[in-house]
Structure formats: structure tokens, C-alpha cells
């Protein structure tokens, strides 16, 4: 199902930086799995500077896998290409995956413990219970 | 002429508000834009400073961001008396100003007085006293090519206005600062606010302290209603926030506005605020999370962290945890609300500095408020870390004996990031002392109200000014 007017949505950029390492017994907690119930694809203003500055900070493999796992890798290459700074076409693809594919409802899943973190109205709830610390 | 550049002298004319913040703001902007600048007259109390700057372009850059700045004037002459000013102006080499005195350039002369009102006749007489200037273009009151200004400064004490000004300035208007943004981002018209929303002026000052620029990645780990992120996004930052309060982020807490009845509107959220100001494309995400725990991947690099942590006066300071040891049964899991324990200020600042050291890029900045009891305050006891340098520290007084300080730290090295931050025990005592002092003076209720009011409005009110004498010390009221 595709929502058109929901307000909040989690972005794959945020997913790329998020871990569950705060849990007792979890060491890396990365990358989190994604179970997406509702996905929204929107259009937002492209800013080549932001995208080219953020790319070196990304875990490219995790990004590609996350996009692929929800069926939105599009034609994003599996390997990060060189000299991307001046390749606007490529930067636009990255922009799309990072900022325009958004999850409204679903779950993030800890790769080590299987603990599920709900995403509701686009806001992930990463709170643990007191016995998981 | 220095370095082949045509350095000129400028008057920075400030709004008479948040006095302690303006020089730090200008310093941050100069560092942000890499501007060479020399302070000629650096005033901490009077609403003006004089600087030398190599190019007008640089002046425009500063003015494009400063919220303390009312306007900036290329200073042609100044003096203690109007007569001195005229003499100094007449001494200026004509060639230096020739480019402004051309028949095709329209002009206007404006008279501004600080702390005194003036009749139209007085103003006209003053304007006419400049008739010796070889201005030959037409007078044009609206949008002239050249705007000249005479500013007369009569001091700060409105109960004691002298007959003659203390200082007078004359020059060419170059640019206004960003005071208009303060009303554009006013909390009065903002969709989603709470009782701890930060007023736009201070939020914008924080974004400037953080040197936010186009395309930066910015985090607020105690995001609340996102007022700090609004300011950061206004200056081009891409923003992320976390808060422990699920209901807050979902816009389901009790509404703050009195006129609003029982419920908030359906779409109240940090994101709708961004949308309201046309900066929704800078909004990344907000998450429900406990900032006392690590959340982010070790490779995450932030350009800045901007935050107002909870002080435990208006909002709960809490984190997930329990003093008991037990396991929640499976059948209760889905509806279990995690239990919370006190999250003291000492721990909050420990975690905040740790976050900064681990995730700021080199030269990235942490900008945060810390509440202090004024009598106990001592700069050496502020939270510290070998990788973080305190580059600015401005005070905003809240009550007679408390204030909060806006701290700006810059990450200066990448080596000792594993070391723990130092947070003095006294940091933790703010809350207890706040209430104890409050009782002592039997103004507990009033204090709290005053604090809550000042925190939410965060502008110095007339009442506050009454206690304060010029040196910033307090008279008893
Ligand atoms: C002073 S308020 C910040 C207000 C914010 N600047 C705004 O614009 O609304 C502090 C916030 O910290 C949150 N908070 C308290 N303890 C927390 C924790 N352990 N982790 C994350 N957020 C917490 C509170 O819910 C509150 O929203």
C-alpha cells in the first residue's frame, strides 16, 4: 500500500547510521534489517553538495542492501563508483535512495538478537525495555 | 591599503538584546566564512562595535547570517560630539568617497537616535548640517542608491538620558542583519510548539555558533519540538533529532497553547514545522531514543550537535533503566512501557560530550546550554574533554541567582577520543540548589514561573532589566 499524505517517514539515510548496539549482549548491531509495511516514494529537492559530502560517510554496502531488501535499489550500482562528485546522474540516484524512499510503518530488526523496533508514522522507536540494557 | 586589499572600517550596529552573545556570534561567522577581520572597538555592553574588514563582500556575508546585528555601516566619521564628526568627515580625502557622489546616484540621509526620541525638525536640521557633502544626485526616500546614516548614541539608561549623545557615527549603510528571521520563525505562529521550545533568536544564534552551512548534517539528541533544528535547517543544515518522549514526537502531548482546546491538531510534528517554513527538504528524521545510550554507527560523522538538554525543572530528566534486576515476561512485552530512572545533569553532560567526541567531524562543533547557579559558577568546572576546546561561552540570566550558559565546543583532535569526559560533580547540583535557593527567598513559585517564562520567551523582559545595573550585576529589587 502506498500512502500519499502521511507526514512522517523514515529515510534510508537514517537507517544507514542506526544501530542496536545499546542492547545487552549485542556488539555491533548493524545494519538493522528492515520490514517495511508501507513505503512512500516522494520527491524532494536535490542538493548535489549534500549528497556528495554524505557519500564518504555512508556504509555503501549496507545502503545498497537496505534499498534492495525493500525493492528500491533501482539502478543504484552495488559498488560505489569513483569520481562520483561530478557525476550528477549518479548523485541523483543516491539522493533518491537516501532521501526519497521512505518507510511509514514497519520494523527495524536487530541483526544479532532479532529484537524488533517498530516504526510507526515514520518514527522509529528505538527505546529498549529496562531488562534489555 | 593592506595586503593589496582595500580594508575599510565598518560600524556593526547591534540590537540591544542578548548582549553576551553578539561578539561570539560575529566571531563564529567570521570563522565560518574565513574572513579576516580586525576589532577596532570591541564593546561588550554598548550596542555597537567597530571593525576593519578587507572587502564589502565579507561584510555582506556576515550580515547574511547575523541575528544580533541590526545593520552595518561603512564608517566615514565618528566622534564624541557632532562637531567632531563634521570635522573628521571634512578631513576625509574626497577621492575616497568620489564614487558615491555622482549625479546618477540617488541618495537619502537618515538620522537614528539610540535611547532618545527626536522631532522631525531636529532631524531635518541634522540632515541639513551635511549640506557640504558633494552629493549631487536626486534625493530618493525609498530604495535610494546611496543610503547615508547618522547614528547618535545616548547610552543605555533610559532613566538618565543626557542632553548630548555619548557618541555619534556617520557613514554609508551597507546591509541589515537577519532580525527579520526572528519574526518569520516566531513561536506565536509556529504550528508545533511545547513548553520547552526555544525562542527563534536564541535558536538562530545557536545555529550560527555551530557554523551551520549548506549541506551540513546536524543532530539534536534532545530534540523536543525541534526548535533548534528549525534554525539549523534555515541556514542549510540537514537535520536529525532524537527524544525519549514518544508522545512528544508523535504530537500527542498536551497542547501548550491556551487557546488550543483538548487536543493537538493531527499533523503537529517537527516535520510540519519544517514544512511551514519551506525547509522540509532539510528534514531527515526524528527518532524515539534514549540519549544515555549509544545509537549511532561508529562511522557516523556530524558537522554539528546543537541541543538544549533537560534541566529537570520544566521537563523530566529521565533515562530507561531500573534499580531492580528482572526480566519482563513475553506476554507483557508488547504493551510494556519501559521504566525510567533519574538522568542527572552530570550524566547528561558526560553522555553529550562523549557523543560529540565520537561523532563530530574534525573542527565540528557542539553547541549546548548548561544551567548554572550564578554564585557557584566557575569556568574551570564546566564539562570538558581533551578533544574538545571551549571556544565560546555566553550567559543568559534566568533569575536573580540562576542563569544558563551557551557553550560552544570545537573538536580539535582525533586522537584521544576514547578518554572519558570530565564533568564536575557540581554540574549535578543545579536542580537541588535551584529549589533550595528558591525556598530560601520564599519566592519558589514566582521563581519557577519566571524561569519557565524566561526560558520560553528567552528575551530579557523589562522587569529583568530593572534589577540589572550597567555592569551586569544585580541590584536588589
Ligand atoms: C529542554 S527540552 C528540549 C526542547 C527542544 N529544544 C524543543 O525545541 O522543544 C529537553 C528534551 O529532552 C528530552 N529528554 C529527557 N531525557 C531524555 C533522554 N534520556 N534521552 C533523550 N531525550 C530526553 C525531553 O523529552 C525534552 O523534550
Automatic annotation (TrEMBL), chain A:
<comment type="similarity">
    <text>Belongs to the TRM112 family.</text>
</comment>
<keyword id="KW-0963">Cytoplasm</keyword>
<dbReference type="GO" id="GO:0046982">
    <property type="term" value="F:protein heterodimerization activity"/>
</dbReference>
<dbReference type="GO" id="GO:0005654">
    <property type="term" value="C:nucleoplasm"/>
</dbReference>
<dbReference type="GO" id="GO:0030488">
    <property type="term" value="P:tRNA methylation"/>
</dbReference>
<dbReference type="Pfam" id="PF03966">
    <property type="entry name" value="Trm112p"/>
</dbReference>
<dbReference type="InterPro" id="IPR005651">
    <property type="entry name" value="Trm112-like"/>
</dbReference>
<dbReference type="GO" id="GO:0048471">
    <property type="term" value="C:perinuclear region of cytoplasm"/>
</dbReference>
<dbReference type="GO" id="GO:0070476">
    <property type="term" value="P:rRNA (guanine-N7)-methylation"/>
</dbReference>
<keyword id="KW-0539">Nucleus</keyword>
<protein>
    <recommendedName>
        <fullName>Multifunctional methyltransferase subunit TRM112-like protein</fullName>
    </recommendedName>
</protein>
<dbReference type="InterPro" id="IPR039127">
    <property type="entry name" value="Trm112"/>
</dbReference>
TrEMBL record, chain B:
<keyword id="KW-0949">S-adenosyl-L-methionine</keyword>
<dbReference type="InterPro" id="IPR000241">
    <property type="entry name" value="RlmKL-like_Mtase"/>
</dbReference>
<dbReference type="InterPro" id="IPR059073">
    <property type="entry name" value="TRMT11_N"/>
</dbReference>
<feature type="domain" description="Ribosomal RNA large subunit methyltransferase K/L-like methyltransferase">
    <location>
        <begin position="189"/>
        <end position="319"/>
    </location>
</feature>
<dbReference type="InterPro" id="IPR029063">
    <property type="entry name" value="SAM-dependent_MTases_sf"/>
</dbReference>
<comment type="similarity">
    <text>Belongs to the class I-like SAM-binding methyltransferase superfamily. TRM11 methyltransferase family.</text>
</comment>
<keyword id="KW-0963">Cytoplasm</keyword>
<dbReference type="Pfam" id="PF25904">
    <property type="entry name" value="Tmrp11_N"/>
</dbReference>
<dbReference type="Pfam" id="PF01170">
    <property type="entry name" value="UPF0020"/>
</dbReference>
<dbReference type="GO" id="GO:0043527">
    <property type="term" value="C:tRNA methyltransferase complex"/>
</dbReference>
<protein>
    <recommendedName>
        <fullName>tRNA (guanine(10)-N(2))-methyltransferase TRMT11</fullName>
        <ecNumber>2.1.1.214</ecNumber>
    </recommendedName>
</protein>
<keyword id="KW-0489">Methyltransferase</keyword>
<feature type="domain" description="tRNA (guanine(10)-N(2))-methyltransferase TRMT11 N-terminal">
    <location>
        <begin position="9"/>
        <end position="179"/>
    </location>
</feature>
<keyword id="KW-0820">tRNA-binding</keyword>
<keyword id="KW-0808">Transferase</keyword>
<dbReference type="GO" id="GO:0008033">
    <property type="term" value="P:tRNA processing"/>
</dbReference>
<comment type="subunit">
    <text>Part of the heterodimeric TRMT11-TRM112 methyltransferase complex; this complex forms an active tRNA methyltransferase, where TRMT112 acts as an activator of the catalytic subunit TRMT11.</text>
</comment>
<dbReference type="GO" id="GO:0160102">
    <property type="term" value="F:tRNA (guanine(10)-N2)-methyltransferase activity"/>
</dbReference>
<dbReference type="GO" id="GO:0032259">
    <property type="term" value="P:methylation"/>
</dbReference>
<dbReference type="GO" id="GO:0000049">
    <property type="term" value="F:tRNA binding"/>
</dbReference>
<comment type="function">
    <text>Catalytic subunit of the TRMT11-TRM112 methyltransferase complex, that specifically mediates the S-adenosyl-L-methionine-dependent N(2)-methylation of guanosine nucleotide at position 10 (m2G10) in tRNAs. This is one of the major tRNA (guanine-N(2))-methyltransferases.</text>
</comment>
<keyword id="KW-0819">tRNA processing</keyword>
Amino acid at each position: 500500500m502506498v500512502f500519499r499524505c502521511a507526514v512522517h517517514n523514515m529515510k534510508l539515510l537514517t537507517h544507514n547510521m542506526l544501530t542496536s548496539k545499546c542492547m545487552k549482549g549485542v556488539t555491533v548491531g548493524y545494519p538493522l534489517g528492515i520490514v517495511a509495511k508501507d513505503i512512500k516514494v516522494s520527491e524532494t529537492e536535490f542538493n548535489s553538495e549534500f549528497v556528495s559530502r554524505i557519500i564518504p560517510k555512508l556504509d555503501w554496502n549496507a545502503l545498497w542492501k537496505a534499498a534492495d531488501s525493500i525493492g528500491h535499489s533501482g539502478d543504484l550500482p552495488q559498488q560505489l563508483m569513483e569520481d562520483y562528485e561530478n557525476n550528477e546522474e549518479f548523485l541523483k540516484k543516491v539522493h533518491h535512495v537516501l532521501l526519497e524512499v521512505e518507510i511509514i510503518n514497519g520494523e527495524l530488526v536487530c541483526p544479532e538478537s532479532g529484537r524488533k523496533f517498530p516504526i510507526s508514522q515514520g518514527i522509529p522507536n528505538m527505546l529498549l525495555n529496562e531488562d534489555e540494557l | 591599503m593592506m595586503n593589496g586589499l582595500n580594508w575599510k572600517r565598518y560600524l556593526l550596529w547591534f540590537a540591544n538584546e542578548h548582549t553576551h552573545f553578539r561578539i561570539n556570534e560575529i566571531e563564529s561567522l567570521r570563522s565560518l566564512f574565513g574572513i579576516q577581520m580586525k576589532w577596532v572597538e570591541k564593546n561588550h555592553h554598548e550596542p555597537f562595535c567597530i571593525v576593519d574588514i578587507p572587502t564589502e563582500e565579507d561584510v555582506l556575508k556576515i550580515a547574511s547570517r547575523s541575528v544580533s546585528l541590526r545593520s552595518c555601516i561603512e564608517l566615514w566619521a565618528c566622534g564624541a560630539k557632532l562637531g567632531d564628526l563634521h570635522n573628521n568627515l571634512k578631513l576625509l580625502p574626497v577621492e575616497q568617497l568620489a564614487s558615491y557622489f555622482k549625479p546618477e546616484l540617488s541618495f537619502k540621509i537618515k538620522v537614528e537616535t539610540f535611547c532618545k526620541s527626536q522631532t522631525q525638525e531636529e532631524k531635518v536640521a541634522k540632515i541639513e548640517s551635511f549640506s557640504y557633502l558633494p552629493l549631487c544626485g536626486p534625493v530618493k526616500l525609498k530604495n535610494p542608491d546611496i543610503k547615508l546614516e547618522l547614528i547618535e548614541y545616548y547610552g543605555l539608561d533610559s532613566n538618565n538620558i543626557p542632553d548630548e549623545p555619548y557618541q555619534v557615527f556617520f557613514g554609508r549603510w551597507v546591509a541589515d542583519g537577519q532580525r527579520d528571521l526572528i519574526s518569520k520563525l516566531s513561536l506565536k505562529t509556529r504550528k508545533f510548539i511545547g513548553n520547552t521550545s526555544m525562542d527563534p533568536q536564541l535558536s538562530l544564534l545557536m545555529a550560527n555558533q555551530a557554523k551551520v552551512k549548506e549541506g551540513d548534517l546536524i543532530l539534536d539528541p534532545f530534540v523536543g519540538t525541534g526548535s533548534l533544528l528549525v534554525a539549523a535547517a534555515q541556514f542549510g543544515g540537514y537535520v536529525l533529532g532524537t527524544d525519549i518522549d514518544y508522545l512528544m514526537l508523535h504530537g500527542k502531548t498536551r497542547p501548550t497553547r491556551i487557546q488550543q482546546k483538548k487536543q493537538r491538531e493531527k499533523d503537529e510534528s517537527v516535520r510540519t514545522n519544517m514544512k511551514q517554513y519551506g525547509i522540509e527538504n532539510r528534514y531527515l528524521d526524528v527518532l524515539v531514543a534514549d540519549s544515555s545510550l549509544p545509537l549511532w554507527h561508529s562511522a557516523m560523522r556530524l558537522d554539528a550537535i546543537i541541543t538544549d538538554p533537560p534541566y529537570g525543572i520544566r521537563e523530566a530528566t529521565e533515562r530507561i533503566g531500573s534499580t531492580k534486576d528482572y526480566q519482563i515476561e513475553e506476554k507483557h512485552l508488547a504493551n510494556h512501557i519501559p521504566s525510567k530512572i533519574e538522568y542527572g545533569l552530570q550524566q547528561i553532560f558526560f553522555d553529550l560530550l562523549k557523543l560529540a567526541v565520537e561523532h563530530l567531524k574534525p573542527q565540528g562543533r557542539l553547541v549546548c546550554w548548561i544551567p548554572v547557579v550564578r554564585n557557584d559558577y566557575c569556568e574551570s568546572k564546566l564539562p570538558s574533554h581533551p578533544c574538545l576546546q571551549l571556544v565560546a561561552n555566553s550567559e543568559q540570566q534566568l533569575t536573580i541567582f540562576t542563569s544558563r550558559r551557551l557553550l560552544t565546543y570545537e573538536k580539535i583532535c582525533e586522537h584521544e577520543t576514547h578518554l572519558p569526559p570530565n564533568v564536575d560533580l557540581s554540574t549535578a547540583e543545579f536542580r537541588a540548589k535551584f529549589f533550595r535557593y528558591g525556598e530560601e527567598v520564599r519566592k519558589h513559585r514566582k521563581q519557577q514561573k519566571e524561569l519557565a517564562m524566561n526560558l520560553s520567551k528567552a528575551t530579557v523582559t523589562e522587569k529583568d532589566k530593572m534589577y540589572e545595573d550597567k555592569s551586569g550585576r544585580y541590584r536588589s529589587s
